[in-house]
């Protein structure tokens, strides 16, 4: 009760009110500076194939593959990079809280007890308590700007975390598709090897009966060996793909995950929205804009550091040999003081700090512009690839169909002695090559859908779905 009547209490009250008055929103200049750094963008996307409509979320479900959904969920829970990104968000907000603490007064309490005596048996005890407070008046906004910089950094870390989660979902889907393709390519290689093994057996029998030549035998053996080499390569590729997927899932890379042999059906192209919209939707661009805000606050902080600083300090305490009389006004003492520190000579350190902060702002603006242009390029490329891959797939379907027809005819002619084995094997290789190429195109089309959704900033999950 006595403390409320001291000048220290009035000082603390004024300090608390002053601290509340210094809290403002993050710097509003950032968005304007960011928008000015990007070249004029067209109203619509320039690539052919842009679908009109708002950008959608929940792209993972549109592949209609429950296995893929489970793998994405597993990766989001277990991936170590995501865990590190989440920890970085927590750390960034803790730093922001730490920076904001300087806006309020600091108060410390102390207590102690001691005793003394002499050889005649005399002794006495002392008990003392005290409180000390200090506060730097943020007259020029230096502390406030420092806090704004850390808040912007925390917001950027949150946006980076969202983008990392989106990238992980797309990475898992891409690794999953590659693993399925590798397994299917291995199956094609196994079928080729089985065919050529039978061809080699037939040719050897023909040679033994004087029907085939040594050249036919050598060609059959050469193709069989090449096929065995291709099979080993595809087996290795499959194991590599499975390990890459397992690492994303946070599993041990044992290459023992089962992914099946059939790629999901290619979903329809998502609506592309408008070019300007991705600047506010894509988390990586949002993070770049928040870094501009932080750099602006950093410049303000460095400039304010060149101005005088004002600090207030105060203390109150008491001492007594009796606990009951410790807070007696007669035993209390207080003191209050203020100080003014004016920078005079610092060897140019504060001016250099302003130059450094200004350079950091310029770098943040350039990084934002680069991120925005990269995003535009990714969308335009993904939209263009949808048309390119569709035409390539159509051409390869024709190539596969005609090659299979040619192989059917060649086998008939070979059985009747109208053509040689070399011609048959050459056509056989065309058929298998067409199958392999068509399979790769189908996987690339799935990747293109992933790339487009990522470029547009569409999240893999729908927040309205459980």
Q: Helix share of residues?
A: 55-70%
The quaternary structure here is single chain
Tell me about the largest β-sheet. Answer: 4 strands, antiparallel
**Helical segment tally?**
10
Fraction of residues in β-strands: 5-15%
- Write down the Rg: 37 Å
Q: What's the average pLDDT?
A: 84
Q: Specify the overall morphology.
A: elongated
List the strand order in the largest sheet: 1-2-3-4
Order of helices and strands: HHHHEEHHHHEEHH
Structure, explained:
By secondary structure, the protein is an alpha+beta fold. The chain has ten helices and four strands. A four-stranded antiparallel sheet has the order 1-2-3-4, covered by helices on one side. A hairpin with a 5-residue loop joins strand 1 and strand 2. The N terminus is likely disordered.
What can be said about this structure in brief?
The chain has ten helices and four strands; from the N terminus they run H-H-H-H-E-E-H-H-H-H-E-E-H-H. With 466 residues, the protein is an alpha+beta fold. The longest helix is centred in the middle third of the chain and has 67 residues.
